[in-house]
Amino acid sequence: MPTVKKKGTTNDFFADVYEVARLIPKGRVTSYGAIGHYLGAKSSARMVGWAMHGCPRDVPAHRVVNSAGLLSGKHHFKDPNSMQKRLEKEGIKVVNDKVKDFKTVFWDPSKELAL
Fold first, then answer.
1. Residue range of the domain that includes 20
2. In this structure, what CATH number is given to the domain that contains residue 37?
3. How confident is the model at residue 61 (pLDDT cuts 50, 70, 90)?
4. Confidence of residue 74 (pLDDT cuts 50, 70, 90)
5. Taking every annotated instance into account, which residue ranges of this chain make up the domain Methylated-DNA-[protein]-cysteine S-methyltransferase DNA binding (predicted)?
6. Percent helix, strand and coil across the chain, each rounded to 5?
7. Is the distance from CB of 51 to CB of 33 less than 8 angstroms?
């Protein structure tokens, strides 16, 4: 599996966020904070969220949720229900805008991409 160097591989934080997000497997989710932590910016969940707001189409933004498993970014999709639909298509259950069994489907880049 490809890896991203901790603290990013480029001088472009957004590009590093997208690189990590592209590695999230289907059927798994991660959080904004987990991506930021992996990149060495522990208090950057909002910055990761900002990056995801304008991400390229090939970045699976629907797989990035808040630290409680809430679909907090759903309103950044053309159809606010799109995020849930995409997750459910990948086998992730969502109830009341929250990923069910969040801890089970959580993908932690700091553990999964350990160098």
1. 13-106
2. 1.10.10.10
3. very high
4. confident
5. 12-92
6. 40, 10, 50
7. no
